[in-house]
Amino acid sequence: MVPKKSAGTQKSLDVARLLKSKSLRSVQELEPEAKKLCAQSLVSSRKCESCCLLPELPGLQTPPRSSSSIIRDLYQQKLGKVTWSSLQQGLQKSFLHSLASYRVFQKAAPFDRRTTSLAWHPTHPSTVAVGSKGGDIMIWNFGIKDKPIFIKGMGAGGSITGLKFNHLNPNQFFASSMEGTTRLQDFTGNTLQVYTRSNCCKVWFCSLDVSAKSQVVVTGDNMGHVILLNTDGKELWNLRMHKKKVAHVALNPCCDWLLATASIDQTVKIWDLRQIKGKTSFLYSLPHRHPVNAACFSLDGARLLTTDQNNEIRVYSASQWDSPLSLISHPHRHFQHLTPIKASWHPRHNLIVVGRYPDPNFKSCVPYELRTIDVFDGDSGKMMCQLYDPGYSGITSLNEFNPMGDTLATAMGYHILIWNQEEARSHEYHKRQ
Fold first, then answer.
1. How far apart are CA 67 and CA 41, in angstroms?
2. pLDDT tens by residue, 128-185
3. Would you tell me which CATH number, out of the four given (3.40.50.10470, 3.90.1150.10, 2.130.10.10, 1.10.20.10), belongs to the domain 106-432?
4. Which of 253, 265, 401, 409 can bridge 244 by disulfide, Cβ–Cβ 3.0-4.6 Å?
5. How many CA atoms are closer than 13 Å to the CA of 54, on its beta-carbon side?
6. Is 7's pLDDT higher than 80?
7. 360-371 burial, b for 16+ CB within 10 Å, e for fewer?
């Protein structure tokens, strides 16, 4: 099936060059991360029993890179003797080694209905917001012993479909819901601004994203409409961009005038917000074989990751949006009483994280296959490792690393699980005392 394209190849190449220039981080920015990885490599890398690393990947069985090796690479890169890509690959390889010792060290089950949304605080690495099918929201700082903040929802029909913290005020968050609103709230539960209200039980909002730089809010509903507003609440436009529900909306982190919308009408569309004239003014329409749960940009904005409702994950590149860079076969089929599975990017490495829902009809399915969290390389699409805790064998629909990239939060039915390497070691130490 040939993708539709309504803009020239030159525009795509211009966007690719812009994203590439914005995505290059300085070596000085990477040094703290490298030093952290170096410190980790000095600790004995005993494999945690609650986490399994794929044994058929011999490249991951070699000892971790030594601290002197990483520091030497940083120095060589400064001298121009080591390429930027080689340095990034070295850091990613060290991180993959560390994943072997990740385990669940914190858990919570605060809701009477399943978890439906999850978002990390942008500046506090141990604070996460989670929403439930009943409209409840929990703001959880798992780094302290105090009780989490709990905001009661309306119950049936109030499902939280999207959460985003307010970058301009760390004590506020945006939420979209099946209640029929997209709103801004504070941590006490007060509604500060209502951006959209359907006033109809047959229409609700399924997704949202926010740009602090441009001060805009974008939300999609179950009828195919996408609405753009400024953060003051003024509606900029409201258009029916898809034939069916808009399951996900995402603004490009580097070029926030670039919008991706994913729909159960089996398409993902890319838009230039500066040139919206109607439903046919998309830059690209990317057809899929099945309804699509999510489309999210990488942190550098140069790639787009899509998750369908059956068994395919796709990666698209800014150099050629209309043709997938890679197709990853992966079982995550849709089920009515399961929060839709969505793949996500690691914030610092070119890695994809997604929960597995074993499917007996999937060609590589084996008997008694585990419900793991799978990590793929974003370039090759190759499986790099799998996380699994025998104490929590459910399906993880949502998996997100915090902005620092060292802690993973997962939503598994009623449970919210926190995975970490350093905390796992501390936990094991205290158990032995």
1. 7
2. 999 999 999 999 999 998 899 999 999 998 999 999 999 999 999 999 999 999 999 9
3. 2.130.10.10
4. 265
5. 16
6. no
7. eebeeeeeeeeb
Helix (H) or strand (E) holding 334: none
Half-sphere exposure of 365 (CA within 13 A, CB side): 15
Q: 305: pLDDT confidence band, cut at 50, 70 and 90? A: very high
Residue 58 has pLDDT above 70, yes or no: no
Helix (H), strand (E) at residue 207: strand 205-211
Q: pLDDT for 390-401, tens place per residue? A: 999 999 999 999
Domain residue ranges in the chain: 26-99, 106-432
Note whether 48 and 103 are within 8 A (CB): yes
Q: 229-253, pLDDT tens digit by residue? A: 999 999 999 999 999 999 999 999 9
353 bridge partner residues = 344, 375
**What distance in Å separates the CA atoms of residue 69 and residue 72, rounded to the nearest whole number?**
5
Tokens of 333: 């089929």
Residue with tokens 């994950």: 313
